[in-house]
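Give me structure tokens for this 135-residue protein.
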Amino acid sequence: MGSLDIIGAVADGWYFDQNGNKLVVNVVAVNYPSATVGDQAAPVVASVAGKKIRVLAMALSSSINGPSCFLRSGAAGTQISETILRNISGAFSAVNYIRTAYYPIFLYETNAGQALILNCSNTGVASVQVVYVLI
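Here you go.
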């Protein structure tokens, strides 16, 4: 596990891995205005050779009658998050889902060298934001 660097009780944006190496905390937001069924062509986070993507926090929005979604390690790879369910057909509001972890715990992690992919159950609008480190 890792830990948040809090020197003088002020977080400075660094995350330490289990070996004490500093890791930069990254944030990305991706909008899929016309999500397709299955893995989205544009990854949430692109793969980095030899690195795992460790998700510390995530938020997902899906349009009214939009898709249910989950995160996957690599295209056609392993599902690593729970399925975030959309509203029942005919509902009046979109789904907004937010999840965070307390240090040193994380939410999800890809296999080394694999991208973080959003998979959707049907067409619609979906947006995802993640806070992550590369391990």
